[in-house]
Amino acid sequence: TERTLVLVKPDGVSRGLVGEVITRLERKGLRLVAAELRTLDRETAETHYAEHRERPFFADLVEFITGGPLMALVVEGPRAIEAFRALAGATDPVKAGPGTIRGDFALEVQNNIVHGSDSPESAEREVTLFFPNLA
Ligand code: GTP
Ligand code: MG
């Protein structure tokens, strides 16, 4: 079994899609381990997205992810990292297939509803960043 950090980003929360995301991952067979609605401070957001620090969209991304409450989830199951990223679909929602969260609910690359850790190393780092008591 494996753990991954899932975020319902501020666009997903403001559009009322928290339940939809949780329903989809639970239906898939993944299990919730932790959940918290919170607004990220700038420092946590910059740490979370540190790999994108040099990208031209970094400032916009930090503004977006700190711009309202998000739902942070720790999700567990066999190959949970890959399983959730398959549910999420491609980063660019226009390229994400129908039936995926991004494919069904989003149109713009930044405002793509969800985040899911992309590797075991990222998952461990991100779970610890959001939920230090689960480390
Ligand atoms: P995350 O699960 O959120 O990490 O998405 P990802 O792994 O599918 O994509 P990636 O890590 O490459 O990018 C992180 C996030 O930055 C994306 O999910 C988008 O919200 C945002 N992003 C990516 N590319 C662009 C871009 O070209 N412009 C803008 N404004 N935002 C982008
Ligand atoms: Mg990523």
Automatic annotation (TrEMBL):
Cofactor(s) named in the record: Mg(2+)
Protein name per its UniProtKB record: Nucleoside diphosphate kinase
EC number in record: 2.7.4.6
GO terms for biological process, alphabetical: CTP biosynthetic process; GTP biosynthetic process; UTP biosynthetic process
Binding site residues for ATP: K9, F57, R85, T91, R102, N112
Top EC class for this record: transferase
Function statement: Major role in the synthesis of nucleoside triphosphates other than ATP. The ATP gamma phosphate is transferred to the NDP beta phosphate via a ping-pong mechanism, using a phosphorylated active-site intermediate.
Native source species: Blastococcus xanthinilyticus
Gene3D superfamilies, A to Z: Nucleoside diphosphate kinase-like domain
Family annotation (Pfam families): NDK
Gene name of the encoded protein: ndk
Keywords: ATP-binding, Cytoplasm, Kinase, Magnesium, Metal-binding, Nucleotide metabolism, Nucleotide-binding, Phosphoprotein, Transferase
InterPro entries assigned: NDK-like_dom, NDK-like_dom_sf, Nucleoside_diP_kinase, Nucleoside_diP_kinase_AS
